Amino acid sequence: MIKNQTRLWWLTTINILAVIATMLFSFKLWIGTRVFPNVPISEHLPSIFYPIDYVLFGMALLFLGLLLLQRKQRWILGFLGVALVLCLYDQMRWQPWFYLYLLLFLLLLIVHSPFSNKKRETIVFTVAALVLSSMYFWSGVHKLHSGFADFVYPYLVETFGMQIDKSKTIHAVLAYGMGLSELGIGLALVWKPTRNYAIFAALLMHLFILVVLGPFGRSENLIIVPWNISMMALVVVVFYKNETLSLQSLRLPATLGVNIVRWGVIILVVVMPLFSHFGMWDYYLSNTLYAGKTNRLLVVIPKEYEKQLPPMIRQHTEPISNTQFLVYVNTDIWALKELNVPVYPQRRVHYAVARYFCEYFSELGNQNKGLLFRIDSRWESQKVLEQFECKAFEGK
Q1: Does residue 262 sit in the same domain as residue 312?
Q2: What is the model's pTM?
């Protein structure tokens, strides 16, 4: 059996390297000097200008580097403090992988302290196990609907040149079976007799994702590469032959601080995703990943305005069929090309990006005439959820 100290060293190291890799891969996401607008949690926050944005990014990496060399609680606190500021200033940074890493760092606060002991280590690994298993469980639950079966499943499978006949029963069985399998992995990881099978299944699933969505597959959202590699490592480190994992350990007595972290994290990963089904919790914070539920923002622009767009946006405009007077911008594609992440799929973020276009053209003297914004399903473009113009923001 691997000693908890060794397992803890690997858990911390993997989390550090994963955050460094994903932050470097999505470098422009973390700075303010970019074309894609920042979406702060509140318009009343004071602006962060160059070079402060670079300083914050550098401080985050510095704290992670120091933690890699010296496992001290103060370095975790330093990183979490900077990460909090970065996330308050831009909701685009609330990516599911970053959310996962932050939760794990919160847990690591418990053991990287002068008061660490075996009881605390057991608590940390048990809650970390719940974090990972809940991620698989809720991700699978979100896939159990027609949006995944009709659109996402064919998108994944057709990567290999296979043709899907949606009228056949086997198609629905395989599509819903994929969601049930992921849900099952989450449950099986918790139960000791099935844990090793679940580890193997999770590794296969991540390999499948890397093949389909990685550089040799769809190659559209490459941030999934370091994320899925880190997930494979985390699953092995947390679950493989870990005899200390037990739901009974959740009842171990602990200090107030440990209890706040322990139960706070459990509520966030086990309970809160349920509220996403009622629009009361964000999709990405609920592990709604490639489930066919998220939406996108399209910006329809008069052709005559196209040349006034910044080059970064202009290169991603597309013509609209049946008219030569309009073009559109798919903001997801723009974000993926500039920031290496998709748009955070919540209406408030879509509205903020739409407002950016309104203000941009207003400053050019065009008075926003002719701009149209459309929010539709990211996977089912015919499913239009909302259309509005710049006048929707007047007086707000």
Answers
A1: no
A2: 0.94
